[in-house]
Specification:
The chain is of the alpha+beta class. Helices cover 35% and strands 10% of the residues.
Length: 168
């Protein structure tokens, strides 16, 4: 989660990605669409390129101009961004309906965004999941940042359960 937040961690980055999925590719078009300061936009685009989410492609000689295109990694972000969109539509609605819909062309209906298990196709709910120590968990973690005591040592093993749900 922390590694993902390092890449996606601010609102400008999310709306740049939104515009990328809308087909915006050129610096000036991002700037005009978002009303973002040029230095901030340059910084965020550079971060997304360095992270591998976007690629920077040369398209004009004089003056030199580049377009920013989603990579495979960038396209893989779409389900997460769609889930954020659905969450906002549910919890931050003004009562007038969703400001933007997602139409699923293959089935001919508005998309209903949901996160499901790739094995059983059941909806993923936090109470049904167990967090466990993955193969990539570092052997050495900075002081105060090691949370392996909250994780099961193996999938299905003891521990790694979230606290009981408390909804006010």
């Amino acid at each position: 989660m922390a590694r993902s937040a390092d890449v996606l961690g601010d609102a400008w980055t999310l709306v740049i990605l939104r515009d990328s999925f809308h087909g915006v590719t050129k610096f000036d078009d991002f700037q005009q669409s978002l009303g973002i300061a040029r230095n901030t936009l340059s910084d965020r685009l550079g971060n997304l390129v360095n992270a591998g989410v976007l690629t920077k492609e040369f398209y004009q000689d004089n003056p030199p101009r580049y377009e920013y295109l989603l990579t495979e990694m960038g396209h893989d972000l779409f389900p997460a961004l769609a889930a954020i969109l659905a969450w906002g539509d549910r919890w931050l609605s003004t009562g007038n309906g969703a400001p933007v819909g997602l139409y699923h062309r293959p089935c001919g209906h508005d998309a209903e965004v949901d996160v499901v298990c790739g094995h059983c196709r059941q909806r993923l709910v936090d109470d049904d999941l167990q967090f466990y120590v993955g193969a990539g968990y570092p052997d050495v973690v900075g002081e105060g940042h090691d949370f392996r005591d909250r994780l099961a040592l193996t999938p299905g093993g003891e521990g790694g359960r979230p606290q009981p749900r408390r909804v006010p």
